[in-house]
Design brief:
This protein is an alpha+beta fold and about 250 residues long. It has seven helices and twelve strands. Helix 1 packs antiparallel against helix 2 and helix 3 packs across helix 5. Keywords: Dioxygenase, Iron, Metal-binding, Oxidoreductase, Vitamin C.
Length: about 250
């Protein structure tokens, strides 16, 4: 799918270097001879269609230890969830009925802060923080980050250096939590919503995937736009996912 869209984009603008690089990457990935790991991933993906295998997998997930899955297995299941939505059904617990409520608190200046919360799962608890940012806030973040966007990098565990990688085709920028009044207001909402302090947290990261952009399985915590395809948040041990939606 990504290869097809990139191919169409290059036809529209054949002089766009970024789209040409993306097209080359997707083409090489498509034509690459399958390795043993690829074969194992394919085998696991096929197994996810088998009910007996799913029953065994569900039994494993009853133990929520982080050691349940190896990295490769969890990565494959996560990708499957992003494409297909779920691997388990939840009939035994009844139809899923999201519950919505408002969480209230105050910021460091004593100003009242409210956050709309939508509960998706009870056990384990999975929630979506709705209206955490207004359209005005989102536009502000985009404008502040725009001129600082750079090709995203990853940490090379062997060299200890940051470098670009073919499995992360995106641009990113960083904003300090105390950058201005809007970032401070966003920080206050996150604190109220999560009951966590942000004293040791990273700066706000703004990422632009563009059209045909790609990053391997990773963590994202908010979306500043809706997308037509992809971008689901997968929960491998729940065997389900949540469709990508704007905050």
């Amino acid at each position: 799918m990504a290869f097809e869209y990139c191919h169409l984009l290059v036809k529209i603008d054949p002089y766009n270097d970024e789209w040409i690089d993306n097209l080359k990457y997707f083409k090489n990935a498509t034509l690459k001879e399958k390795t043993l790991i690829d074969d194992e991933d394919d085998s696991l993906t096929i197994s996810l269609e088998d009910q007996d295998y799913l029953n065994k997998l569900r039994q494993r997930f009853k133990n929520v230890s982080l050691d349940n899955l190896d990295d490769g297995e969890e990565n494959t299941i996560s990708k499957y969830l992003c494409a297909h939505g779920h691997i388990f059904t939840h009939e035994e617990t009844g139809p899923l009925k999201p519950a919505c409520f408002v969480k209230e608190g105050t910021n460091v200046f004593g100003k009242f802060v409210t956050v709309n919360v939508e509960r998706i799962f009870n056990d384990p608890g999975v929630i979506i923080l709705r209206s955490i940012a207004s359209d005005k806030d989102i536009l502000h973040f985009k404008m502040e980050a725009y001129n600082e966007l750079q090709t995203a990098t990853v940490h090379n565990s062997e060299t200890g250096k940051l470098e670009t990688a073919k499995y992360r085709i995106t641009q990113s920028s960083w904003l300090d939590k105390n950058h201005d009044s809007i970032t401070r207001r966003m920080k206050a909402r996150v604190v109220v919503a999560t009951d966590l302090t942000l004293e040791s947290a990273e700066m706000f990261q703004v990422a632009n995937y563009g059209i045909g952009g790609f990053y391997d399985t990773h963590f994202d915590f908010s979306r500043m736009s809706d997308v037509a395809l992809g971008g689901n948040t997968g929960f491998p041990r729940l065997g389900s996912s949540i469709k990508c939606s704007k905050v």
